[in-house]
Amino acid sequence: MNENLKIGVIGASGFIGKHLLELLRANGHHAVAFTRRSGVFLEGAAETRVFNMERAPVIGDLDAVVNLAGSPILRRWSAKAKKQILDSRVLPTRKILRTLANTCVGGQGPTVLVNASGIGFYGDQGPNAQVITESAPPGFGFLARTAAIWENEAVQGAAEIPNLRTITLRIGFVIGPDGGAIPLMRTPFKCFMGGYLGNGHQWMSWIHVTDLARLILFIIQSPGIEGPVNAVAPKPVTNREFTKAFAKAVHRPALFPVPGFLLRLILGEMAELVLSSHRVASEKISEFSFVYPDVVSALQAGCEKPARFISSI
Q1: Residue 24 CB coordination number (10 Å)
Q2: 100-109 per-position pLDDT tens digit
Q3: How many domains are contained in the chain?
Q4: pTM of the entire structure?
Q5: Domain region containing 239
Q6: 3-class SS at 73?
Q7: How many CB atoms neighbour CB 40 within 10 A?
Q8: CA 45, CA 22: separation in Å to the nearest integer?
């Protein structure tokens, strides 16, 4: 599947979505950005269409759909916030699959669905974790439950649609200068207040946003890939190693480690996000070539302004 494709991106205005739109345009594909309101312009999109919970997306003419919808998780996890985090992922996915079920009839409609998820699916593996791949079972905790419910919504809906290749993309910690956690991390380091988190021995499985966008397109164009896919670079690191590389990238020392109890006090349950250990690899993307296979080069690029954009997959 190497011809020019018409690809719909739901959640196109987010951090990952914006990079994906740019990559699709650079590779000659027709990117359709779905937004909650009409009249919104997104750079990289060939056109925009409306998708919200009151209005089903128009997707019958697309070759593939990428669902990145979901409200931010970088906030305190109150009961209300947790419900928003879950609903903002599950409900759009349900609507997309119902629309696909009504669209993919008689060989018509999209043949590929890439539905976002996260490596939080596996739960906290602990500091002595062995590398796990896509065959590992779900873990425990809020993120694991959310990812499992989210994926189940996609998989169960897709089971009713013949000829739809469905991928649940378990995304790791995303590195990039214009979104995610990296801009938040930069401030304390610039003020000489940065350091590793907790004891720093927790594993981090990560990916640069440029490689993530490239990987999504690679998967769409690879008919043999389906089911869960871990979207992570090949070399996970500990938080101490990550922090050392980040400090070097921003030209600051890492002087002040943040104890786990203080993170739990400040962040509440959301501390799970930074203290959990995830040592994850993928057994499904061995043919994919990473631009940033190691954390040092990824963070050097991820701390640049503006981001270095790689147009080729």
Answers
A1: 27
A2: 999 888 778 9
A3: 1
A4: 0.95
A5: 6-302
A6: coil
A7: 14
A8: 8
